[in-house]
Write a structure and sequence with these properties.
Distance between the termini: 11 Å
Number of strands: 3
Helix content: 25-40%
Structural class: alpha+beta
Radius of gyration: 12 Å
Largest sheet: 3 strands, antiparallel
Amino acid sequence: MTNTIQDVLRRELVRYLVSKAITCAYTGRALDVRTCVVINGTDGDPAIVISPEAYDAMTQDTRDALTERGFTITDPRTEAGA
């Protein structure tokens, strides 16, 4: 884990989004800052947090549409060291 100011700000923004939402809008499950899937806006900043189950239920067409529009996905289950 790196500790550049950008990384710290990103983690805090994800923490804020999780604390604001509390539960996933799609599954109703409680969100966890350590395991939530982050949908990053076109500027690369975290925009939406969802539960891993919501991401797993997302169709490939939806994922492709997000990518085509410039969004990126951060899934902690697929990151190195996870």
